[in-house]
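[step 3/7] inverse_fold.run input=structure_tokens len=256
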């Protein structure tokens, strides 16, 4: 991954990423490692091979803690372990999510609760867990991943889009509450990023062509586009940006 910018203040920063071992999350982990950050991440699946590869490729070994983020006690323990290893967390990236497709009339209460626990509840409690350490540091940056799905009014995953919208409300409230502590809280809303999962499940030639037609910029989004935007929001380069939702989608939601 070749970057267009280097964010010097991220070198040595203690960074915590949820879902940092696969998909966009793996690219985020790599991106912060290449900036010289001390990265800890959680994921449900064993990521030892990924950790070994990152150390070999970047010279910087991340700390992997296996954890189901719906287990809030385990998530808080993982954050505490990361802070013990790397120092108080200065950057939190709430990236983990599950956009499993579903129909409104088929949703049962257990599924609804499961979806909210992954896509919204864990975000809140991760923020809660890192804020005391950020206060000690004199500030910090939280980046909450949302999606343009709710902005577009997409169908096919209403529990997911509900959580996406909630993330934005939570982001604005936390930004207001903790701004006096110089803690910045922003949301990042990716468009259709062509990860392996997307290519395997939904990115048919017809679907890709239709989506590209809606974009102002006629290039497909790659993980690096999201990584560099996250690095910007995490760095003091964006020190006066808080309570915002940065849309990185090639111009879909502004063009209609």
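[step 3/7] decode complete -> sequence:
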């Amino acid at each position: 991954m070749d970057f267009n910018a280097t964010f010097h203040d991220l070198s040595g920063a203690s960074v915590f990423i949820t879902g940092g071992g696969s998909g966009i999350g793996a690219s985020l982990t790599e991106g912060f490692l290449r900036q010289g950050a001390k990265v800890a991440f959680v994921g449900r699946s064993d990521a030892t091979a990924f950790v070994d590869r990152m150390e070999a490729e970047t010279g910087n070994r991340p700390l992997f803690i296996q954890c189901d983020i719906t287990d809030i006690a385990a998530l808080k323990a993982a954050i505490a372990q990361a802070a013990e290893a790397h120092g108080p967390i200065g950057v939190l990236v709430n990236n983990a999510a599950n956009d499993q497709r579903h129909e409104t009339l088929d949703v049962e209460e257990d599924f609804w609760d499961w979806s909210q626990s992954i896509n919204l509840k864990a975000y809140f409690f991760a923020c809660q867990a890192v804020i005391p350490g950020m206060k000690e540091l004199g500030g910090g940056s939280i980046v909450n991943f949302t999606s343009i799905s709710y902005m577009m009014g997409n169908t096919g995953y209403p529990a997911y889009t509900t959580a996406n919208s909630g993330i934005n409300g939570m982001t604005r409230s936390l930004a207001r509450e903790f701004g006096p502590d110089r803690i910045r809280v922003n949301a990042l809303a990716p468009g259709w990023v062509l990860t392996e999962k997307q290519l395997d499940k939904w990115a048919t030639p017809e679907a890709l062509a239709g989506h590209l037609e809606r974009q102002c910029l006629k290039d497909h989004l790659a993980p690096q586009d999201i990584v560099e935007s996250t690095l910007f929001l995490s760095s003091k380069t964006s020190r006066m940006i808080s309570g915002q939702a940065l849309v990185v989608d090639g111009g879909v939601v502004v063009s209609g």
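[step 4/7] annotate
Residues 193 and 221 are 5 Å apart (CA to CA).
The chain has a mean pLDDT of 93.
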